[in-house]
Amino acid sequence: MGQPQPEPLTPLAEDWQRALAVVAHPDDLEFGAAAAVARWTGQGKEVVYCLVTSGEAGIDAIAPERARVIREEEQRLSARLVGVDTVDFLGLPDGLLEYGVPLRRAITEVIRRHRPDVVITNNFRETWDGAYTLNQADHIATGRATLDAARDAGNRWIFPEQLTGGVQPWNRVREVWAAASPLSRHGVDVTDTFAAGLASLRAHDAYLRGLGDGSFDPEEFLEGISRPVGTRLGVRHGAAFEIFPLGLH
After folding, report:
1. Cα distance between residue 153 and residue 158, in whole Å
2. Contact yes or no for 162/112 (Cβ under 8 A)
3. Are 111 and 168 in contact (CB under 8 A)?
4. 3-class SS at 191?
5. The predicted structure's pLDDT at residue 249
6. Of 63, 33, 42, nearest to 240 (Cα)?
């Protein structure tokens, strides 16, 4: 008996103009979603990055004060390689993020300021594979808070202190997209922008050199993610997303 075939993915809608990507750490978007960002900026769309932390606890051999500077520099370079000019850092503590009102408040402010049509975050399910490969606490907290903040942003009575200097409630986030979720049912063809996504991951040079024994191969890793997704889309390389529709509210 043959192996069951994976469920095909539905192509993501691309009838939008502005997206805000909110993730916990520098490099989070580059582990799979950056090639999709390159596709969208190549279409003339605007994508803004928001990094909740600066990844300062992510390199064992480099003290956090120095690592913060390095990782912010690498993230800005990485973003430029996929057509992203604006990168916000919220400066919250790496490795210690907690889901709750303070995190929702911080992300709500960014959504109200940038007024996106779509908000992108990383997988915030308990695992990466739907089984055994555990997700990281910062990713889970950030994704959950981002989903809530996308709704909070439209309610003028939630965090009303932010509504100064021309900032208004923003209730036009259509959907939140969680990249690389094990429950993804949608995807995007990144065949033509795979190389840009790879270059953006390689830009995190100091971080990658600090991984394990130093033998990490960015191209092999991204191929291992994008090829199976591409098969489900009927293309060579793909990026998968779980969609959370919000509608206008």
Report:
1. 8
2. yes
3. no
4. helix
5. 44
6. 33
